[in-house]
Design a protein that fits this description.
Length: about 375
């Protein structure tokens, strides 16, 4: 990042990645427009998601319970946020999708998995349902989903807001955030998976486009992950486990989630404190709702493409959804059976990644590897 030209391409690369912010995007010339080629009509609308949820509840014969979080409030535009609960086991698993409204296929993957748990009689599924209770939030951001925008809109000010920056001590500007956070503090899950889409990038050292990235929003061995917890190792084990499982299924082009400076062939791990799953790992106590600082490990998946920049081709949707579905299903199984604990945490380093130049943060800009002392 010595030259301005490098900086601009770097910023553009940042923009298309998950953790860029809307206000930031506005400063980037030539960013993706909403005139993309993707036909969002073929993606699930809010009404369709509600309908599918109710249908799954019905076919599940009592196994799945669908409810809203209305007792905590609704979205900025007055939509209910839905949860589907399945399983009878002790371990509570939180799966959330579409916190970014223009990241659509992840909702479909989450619903497919819910449907599997509702109707499939296989041994693996039964094990999962006996050992855990799963809580799906398939459409965290219904307003953004309907507007096909990344963020939501704060009705009082007309300002757009990235919901994945809003779980911070001095934030909680959107109603969605207080609704979901309130529920999270009441439920106290043991583990969370957050589903996203990302822009185009290439697997390091290849000419192949990444189809799936495995991410931890507080960088392992980075500046933030609390030392007193073992989340540093556990999250690495989880991602390495998924990586192996996906290879077993024949999926390639999977890498570690990074913000990539493609010109210089280097990458930045993210270390974002305001992200929802980061706040979960840090045990954020907002408004006195989490006085014991309950926390748990959390990871995220990134599937290629989103529905507002045209990078999501209709042709590949089935493949991408299935990949996401299998990764989710594998990780849940590995978690409930403790298979993930058998993985060597250092195996995380075998997941393809660009040479680490530093950490991309939401509190101190870019923290370089050397300067950070990590
Ligand atoms: Zn996202």
């Amino acid at each position: 990042m010595k030259k301005m030209a490098g900086k601009i391409s770097f910023l553009t690369a940042l923009f298309v990645m998950l953790f860029s912010s809307l206000s930031f995007a506005a400063t980037v010339p030539g960013g993706p427009s909403t005139e993309g080629k993707t036909n969002i009509n073929s993606m699930l609308s809010y009404a369709e998601v509600v309908k599918i949820l109710k249908n799954i509840e019905k076919i599940s014969k009592g196994k799945v319970e669908v409810f809203t979080l209305d007792r905590f409030g609704k979205s900025e535009q007055g939509r209910s946020i839905y949860v589907a609960k399945v399983g009878t086991g002790e371990k509570k698993i939180w799966i959330q999708a579409q916190i970014h409204g223009n990241e659509k296929l992840v909702t479909e993957a989450a619903l497919q998995l819910l449907k599997t748990y509702a109707s499939n009689q296989s041994k693996n599924v039964q094990t999962v349902l006996e050992e855990s209770t799963l809580y799906f939030i398939p459409m965290y951001n219904p307003d953004g989903a309907e507007m096909n925008t990344r963020g939501t809109m704060i009705m009082e000010t007309g300002q757009s807001l990235d919901l994945n920056r809003d779980w911070a001590e001095n934030s909680f500007k959107a109603k969605e955030s207080t609704v979901v956070y309130s529920y999270w503090t009441e439920l106290k899950p043991d583990f969370a998976i957050d589903l996203h889409h990302q822009g185009l990038k290439q697997v390091y050292g290849t000419n192949e486009a990444t189809s799936f990235s495995l991410g931890i929003s507080l960088a392992p061995d980075g500046p933030t992950l609390p030392n007193e917890t073992d989340y540093n190792d556990v999250t690495k084990q989880m991602m390495a486990y998924v990586y192996d499982e996906m290879k077993r299924y024949g999926y390639t082009h999977i890498d570690r989630y990074q913000i990539v400076d493609s010109e210089n062939q280097i990458g930045y791990d993210i270390d974002i404190k305001g992200g929802v799953v980061s706040a979960m790992m840090m045990g954020l106590n907002y408004n006195g709702l989490n006085p014991d600082n309950h926390s748990h490990p959390a990871v995220f998946f990134e599937t290629k493409g989103n529905s507002s920049d045209g990078s999501l081709g209709q042709k590949s949707n089935g493949y991408l959804t299935k990949q996401n579905y299998l990764a989710l299903k594998s990780l849940v199984y590995g978690y409930v059976t403790d298979e993930v604990e058998e993985v060597d945490p250092d195996h995380w380093n075998d997941i393809p990644a660009y040479p680490l130049a530093g950490y991309w943060t939401d509190y101190d800009g870019i923290v370089h590897v050397r300067a950070s002392g990590f």
